[in-house]
Amino acid sequence: MAVVGLVGLGASVAFASNTFTDVDEGRYYTDAVGWAADNGVTTGTSATTFSPENAVTRAQNVTFAYRYDQNVVQPALNNITTDIAANNTDIAANAVDIAALETLDELSCAQLRL
Known about the structure:
The protein is an all-alpha fold. It has one domain (30-113). Helix content is 57%, strand content 0%. It has two helices and no strands. It has helices at 30-38, 58-113. The longest helix is centred in the last third of the chain and has 56 residues, at 58-113.
């Protein structure tokens, strides 16, 4: 299996070192393999091997894409949705506060006219 180039959206940046015995430190793909394993994109070709020199089948490639979507993209989108909902709640609360201040301001102006 080889890792396809994928963009991480809020994915883990801490890499497992020496996850696979056939992925040597310092190789151009070492960090990418660690990232993919840490984020559930790949499980390797066995519990201890990644087989970095083997070709990737279409089945493996689509599995990488699916796991990337499920383990990286969807959680990031859920976080964004949650943040937006929280901000909308804050905005609504602020709007109520502003309306209350405007009402107080109108009452104060009316009292000054008396």
